[in-house]
Amino acid sequence: MEYVSAVPVPQPRARAASAPDSAGSRRSLAAGLLLGAAGATVVLLASGQTWAEGKASVGGGTLPLTADGQDVTGVPAALAVVGLAALVAVFAVRGAGRLVVAALLALSGLGAGFSAYTGASDSAALDEQAAQTTGNTAATVGALSHTAWPYITAAGGLLILLAGLLALRYGSRWPAMSGRYERDGTPRPRKVPRTAPDPERPEELWKALDRGEDPTREA
Fold first, then answer.
1. Which domain holds residue 201?
2. What is the reported pTM?
3. How far apart are CA 56 and CA 54, in angstroms?
4. CATH no. for residue 162?
5. Residues 77 and 41 in one domain
6. Residues 38 and 141 occupy one common structural domain
7. 109 & 199 share domain
8. Per-position pLDDT tens, the chain of length 219
9. Among 87, 148, 77, CA closest to 115
10. How many domains does the chain have?
């Protein structure tokens, strides 16, 4: 006679189906962190470089002038700082709050990139320097040229934008800061210490052995 076991058999397909999703979440998390941190670093560094060069006429000669990114516009650097704060805050909030912070991260990158791109052809900062140098408010800079740093700054803003888009798309699967201690947001129940089995009751000794405990050890 054949006997049919009533013990449920684990379904490997269910575990295999959840594994790719977990791996994808880890990859998107790593990519978001890398893109956001790298983008903010690029923006902050490139904003301090020379964006424009020119010459101002002084007396019978010319005076070379330069303007860095902060002289042209301080918006990219300010938004990069906001983006870094939003990148950290993504892991401090959950639910709808995480979507709001992820949107702020994406908008920070978009604003930083757009302001840097529009500042690539700006001459107002050098014109102001020319007016201060010559003492003539109507003076303008000549032989104006621009470097590649504004476009590098814009590329950094694009990286922040991509990090924000990843957070919007996959952020709901990312862990929160408290996820190390809580899984579902509820406090874990305290473990109740077990009392030592009564040696006068053999059934308790057998139960302790089944649990893998040493019945001779005192609690």
1. 193-219
2. 0.68
3. 7
4. 1.20.140
5. yes
6. yes
7. no
8. 555 555 555 555 545 444 555 666 778 888 888 999 999 999 999 999 999 888 877 766 777 888 888 888 999 999 999 999 999 988 888 888 889 999 999 999 999 999 999 998 887 887 787 777 767 666 677 777 889 999 999 999 999 999 999 999 888 887 776 544 444 445 555 554 555 555 556 566 556 666 656 555 555
9. 77
10. 2
